[in-house]
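Standup notes
- DV: blocked on the single-chain target, sequence here:
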Amino acid sequence: MKTWKLLVLATVLAASPACKKKKTEGTPVVEPGSASGMTPTPGSASGADPNMGSGSDSAGSGSAVDPNAGSGSAAAATPDANADYITVLAEHAEKKPDDPVTVRFEKFTVKKADFDPKKIEGGTATIEVDLASLKTGSDKRDAHLSTADYIDVSKYTTMTIDVGNVKKKDDTHFTADAKVKLRGAEKTYPVTFEVVEAKDDWIRIKGEHKFPRMDFKVGKAKPGKDEAVATEVTAKVQLTLKKT
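- DV (later): unblocked, structure below
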């Protein structure tokens, strides 16, 4: 009988580890990539790739706008198609990627205008340009063009354009003589302009004309080592002439 009890006790002890092992094997094992996974899946809510944009800085969101994209402030800076301008376009003798360079005169005044908007032929106008107001988008270049090598704004402060002898070509295009006074020189050019808008007491015109810069002794005569600017430049204007 004693021997039988010992055998039963030995059997129970032997069975106990087996039961514990079976219970352990039944415990759920968390697989990688599950909701509480050891290795988060890239792109999931809790495991986003650290190199990817989050909601606060991803492209296209309010706080991560491309600085080169057209934002509201950039749109506000868009040039007004109706704005007046007087510019000179110049190219390098050996063309460069940013050619032509635009020289913009920011200050100018229509000193007088005498014409009938309904009959423009025979009209006259005088425009005065502040030479020191030139801008090219480069402070260094602005300073260079302002020196005696080019315009010499310390000595020559204004340019005057007198328009006369206006004749009609067709309903919107006219010819005229433009007498330009610049740097102590005076030249008269036959020009053509277009009337882009006309009201009861004013007209808006635009036109362009190519001329040699040496007409006004701007720069050196021949491009070369000391002169990078091509010999001819182009003036482009848009002006609103109000009857005075």
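- Follow-up: Confidence is low (pLDDT under 50) at residues 2-75.
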